Amino acid sequence: MADSTSFGMVNPAIFEDLQTKIDEDSQVREELKNILQVLEKQGRATQFTLSRAHSTPTAHLGSTISDAEKSIRQQIGTIARLGHVASKYPYYKYNGIWTRDVQNTCFCILLCGWLGGMANEVDQCQVGKLLTIEEVGQILSVPVNLKDRDAFHLTIEEYLQSLITLIDELARLAVNSVTLGDYERPLQISQFIKDVHAGFQILNLKNDALRRRSDSIKYSVSDSIGPYLKARMR
């Protein structure tokens, strides 16, 4: 006869152990989300600062760039906190939680760099320059495209997504530059977008979402130069 304290066919301890793992996972996600809330807020502040470029003549962008760099440094500090926590766990288990905010931070750095900022962080920074993924990683103080260990890093996909966002933003900047009477910047932006589009044609993208987004770059070429041509024809 079976003992009254014996289990049925399934030991409840199995599910108690699973619940413990679920609780631990929830704690990790909550810790990451708390950090990301700060990073998201900082990102909005940086993008608001950078948006001043749309209504500021090129010659007067110094204060905008300086303010953006200060804001980006705050984001870098939060990225350091994120990396410290994230590197305790398998990268691809949780990276979906932070990838959008990391992309936004990368975009802020790329735009600030394109406008002529980040000179103290990288060599030979100049207006119209595209910062490489290695330079962005250097600014963030995080490794890029890690293959040899499981730790927090900046991926190629995150960099490319940020680059496409930069292209979208520059196409808008070209339009607003014409409104400000600046006819040189749209030409500069148009050539830059053409060069980036040519670069994307070299890539054999496996990520479907990234490949679809990259298809939009060709439309940004006409969007950036169209207002300039219309203005010159008047």
Please state the structural category: mainly alpha
Note the run of SSEs as H and E.
HHHHHHHH
Strand proportion, as a percent range, falls in: under 5%
Principal-axis shape? elongated
- Residue runs with pLDDT of under 50 for 5 or more positions: none
Radius of gyration over C-alpha positions, nearest whole angstrom: 23 Å
Oligomer: single chain
Number of strands: 0
Average pLDDT confidence is 89
Helix content: 55-70%
How many alpha or pi helices?
8
Q: Quick one: biggest sheet?
A: none
Distance between the termini: 99 Å
Keywords:
single chain, mainly alpha, 0% strand, elongated
Present the secondary structure layout:
Elements: H1 13-50, H2 62-86, H3 91-114, H4 133-140, H5 156-179, H6 184-202, H7 208-214, H8 217-233
Overall description:
With 234 residues, the protein is mainly α. It is 69% helix and 0% strand. Helix 3 (91-114) packs parallel to helix 5. The longest helix has 38 residues, at 13-50. The radius of gyration is 23 Å and the shape is elongated. The model has no long low-confidence stretch (mean pLDDT 89).
Kindly summarize this structure in a few lines.
The chain is mainly alpha-helical and 234 residues long.
